[in-house]
Write a structure and sequence with these properties.
142 residues, 75% helix, 0% strand
């Protein structure tokens, strides 16, 4: 549902056809919101189960909690991180790394002409910009 179709649609359809009756699987495929359709089918299956009504109510309550958590997850996915936040973080990190050599000048005074400062700044920049890029990729949690 949330992944691009090219990523897992074929595997999803194959698995659904293996585990569900053909007509039910086709109804899920055709639904505008597949998780809600699957939860509707689950709710119908719970209602048709021969069990005491108290147990049915408990199972329905658990399904409702699951549906609420699904909605929360979708809101997280569709709520983008503001562009200002991403740009501010990148600019702050760039400025900090630009000024860091002045802070490290004294500790690297024992190296010849402060030569060790160059590879140190290179590796620090790679690591910190890598973490920043990773954070940008993790903004989409699913």
């Amino acid at each position: 549902h949330l992944s691009p179709e090219w990523e897992d649609e074929e595997g999803f359809k194959k698995e659904m056809l293996e585990k569900l009756p053909q007509d039910q699987a086709e109804a899920v495929f055709a639904a505008a919101h597949r998780p809600n359709r699957a939860l509707q089918d689950l709710s119908s299956a719970i209602e048709n189960m021969p069990m005491h009504f108290i147990r049915k109510n408990e199972i329905h309550a658990a399904a409702t909690i699951f549906e609420d958590n699904l909605g929360s997850s979708e809101r997280l996915l569709t709520s983008p991180i503001p562009l200002f936040y991403s740009r501010h973080t990148a600019r702050f990190l760039s400025l900090w790394l630009l000024l860091l050599p002045f802070g490290l000048w004294g500790p690297f005074a024992s190296t010849w002409n402060h030569a060790a400062l160059i590879p140190t700044m290179f590796f620090l920049s790679i690591f910190l910009f890598g973490i920043e890029e990773l954070a940008t990729q993790l903004e989409e949690p699913f």
